[in-house]
Write a structure and sequence with these properties.
Largest sheet: 2 strands, antiparallel
Structural class: mainly alpha
Radius of gyration: 30 Å
Distance between the termini: 80 Å
Shape: elongated
Strand content: 5-15%
Number of strands: 2
Number of helices: 6
Helix content: 40-55%
Length: 199
């Protein structure tokens, strides 16, 4: 007998976002479009990304070639057009190492003080009532480590109130055990003290 979940999945269809009309000069239009997903290249023009980081282009195709998200499909379409043009012209694309982005730690002087006194590292604090579990993709390459795609880690909120209750019960049980051990040691101490006095 099939479960409700299996029956539901049989009738569900993934919605595919509509792409804008790219019938006139699609490559020229797409060159000027800006990446509107992830964090590494958000706000950068498609053409800038193509020209500066072919390793990221490889990574993107590897992870998102089957994506149904409209912004991903636009980038995939753009990459396809760039590949077609290179093949038709017989040209090649140079793969270069991307320039490292300056990190907050590189903003420190040799003595560990910030170059900019107004900058200081901020601790990341998790809300007390909510725990988030991050499911990482199975395959990552070296250049994925600094790629913080908002779509990559799947954020799953987890209710932790029952865990808090269990911890509270455990603390109470441990406290009760400690009190019992303390009473036992005190009573054994007084019995041994009384034994010494009787002798």
């Amino acid at each position: 007998m099939t479960s409700l979940l299996e029956r539901l999945q049989k009738i569900q269809v993934q919605k595919v976002e509509e792409l804008p009309d790219l019938s006139q000069d699609p490559l020229e239009q797409l060159n000027m479009m800006k990446v509107d997903f992830g964090t590494k290249y958000r706000g950068r023009k498609f053409q800038d990304v193509w020209e500066t980081d072919q390793q990221w282009i490889n990574w993107f195709l590897k992870h998102y070639q089957d994506s149904t998200k409209g912004s991903h499909r636009l980038m995939i379409h753009y990459i396809g057009l760039k590949i077609e043009r290179a093949e038709l012209e017989g040209s090649v694309v140079t793969v270069t190492e991307p320039q490292p982005q300056p990190s907050k730690t590189s903003a420190l002087k040799g003595n560990g003080k910030p170059l900019n006194p107004s900058w200081s590292p901020k601790p990341k604090v998790m809300p007390a009532k909510e725990l988030r579990v991050y499911l990482e993709p199975e395959e990552q390459s070296v250049w994925d480590l600094d790629e913080m795609e908002s779509e990559m880690p799947i954020e799953v909120p987890v209710d932790v109130s029952h865990l808090e209750q269990r911890m509270l019960h455990m603390e109470n049980a441990i406290q009760t055990i400690l009190q019992a051990v303390e009473q036992m040691s005190m009573s054994q101490g007084s019995q041994s003290h009384a034994g010494i006095i009787e002798q």
